[in-house]
Amino acid sequence: MIYDRQNTLLRHAAMVLGIALIISCIFLTLWLRTSIKSLEYRLGNLQQKQYLRMKEQRNLQAKRDNLLSFASIDNVAIKKMGFSFPNRNKVFHVKERI
Fold it and tell me: Are the C-beta atoms of residues 72 and 66 closer than 8 Å to each other?
């Protein structure tokens, strides 16, 4: 009888341990899936921010290229600074003395 009692106790303990293991595996699986979904969401946000930054960088480079173009520099020099192109009468030739 003692042997049967110990055997049933071991069976019950193994059953409880098995059920606890199954439940813990289910919770672990759910936790992993929610963690993966959270990381995918964060990755999507970061990719969207990267796309916006790259778009802004392209716009700024285009604006810089436009400001540094010869036409823009000539326009600023003539209109804002009052420069003008010299004509033949206003040119002085300087000779170097040796």
Answer: yes
Give the Cα separation of 78 and 74 in Å (integer). 6
For 12, half-sphere exposure in the C-beta direction (CA atoms, 13 angstrom radius) is 6
For residues 66 and 44, which has the higher predicted lDDT (pLDDT)?
44
Token pair of 28, please? 């672990």
* pLDDT value for 1: 47
Cα of 10 vs its chain's centroid, Å: 56
**Using an 8 Å Cβ cutoff, are 16 and 22 in contact?**
no
Are 46 and 40 in contact by the 8 Å Cβ rule? The answer is no
Among 56, 39, 52, 17, CA closest to 9: 17
